[in-house]
Amino acid sequence: MLKIENLHAEVGGKQILNGLTLSVGAGEIHAIMGPNGAGKSTLGYVLGGRPGYEATQGSVTFDGKDLLELAPDERAAAGLFLGFQYPVEIPGVSNLQFLRTALNAQRRARGEDEVSAGDFLRLAREQADKLGISMDMMKRAVNVGFSGGEKKRNEMVQMGIVDPRLAVLDETDSGLDIDALRVVGEGINRIMRRPDKAVLLITHYQRLLDIVEPDFVHVLADGRIVRSGGPELAHKLEREGYGAIAA
């Protein structure tokens, strides 16, 4: 589904990714771990098409398409979802308005019919209920006044509504307490653990991986993958840290 080959990228003229290579197949969940400054968030932003994050060498294909040639909205319409470490607030725009506009824009880009107001409200209510988000919150401005945990759960509602094929989740566990972590982790499993979907889960800690059990764990250091393995690698990192493994 996703194939990254020899990817180099820079931010503000500074080289961050240095020949990263990774393949993610349909039905797979891959965890990316690594020390601060290793390039984990940069990888997510490059895949999502964030301005200022420039791929300077290498290639990225998603379902056979050249991902780097697509605009951010085209990547979203193709089925890529980027979850942020710090979800942004959008004053003046309600969650419901934002999500219906986003969903129908993606459907139009794929040549599909738009979702009616009634069908959308049913879908939004279903997804919000499963993540513990009230419809009153769904009517509020996007993330405005939300706690850290509410922002992350709201982001899972967004993911459930747009129903992507590939989710790139940047430290979704950041700032979550134990209860919110379980709700978010179970949300990822419910929405994305399917044979035709895949997840690239960027995290520092083992605790989320106890809920969202990855098929593969990769250590990112100095802008490239330096070690790959199964879930046991995450446990080793938890015990020993990155020093010896990333050296």
From TrEMBL:
One matching Pfam family: ABC_tran
Residues in ABC transporter domain copies: 2-247
Keywords: ATP-binding, Nucleotide-binding
Entries under InterPro entries matching the protein: ABC_transporter-like_ATP-bd, FeS-cluster_ATPase_SufC, P-loop_NTPase
Family statement: Belongs to the ABC transporter superfamily. Ycf16 family.
Name of protein: Fe-S cluster assembly ATPase SufC
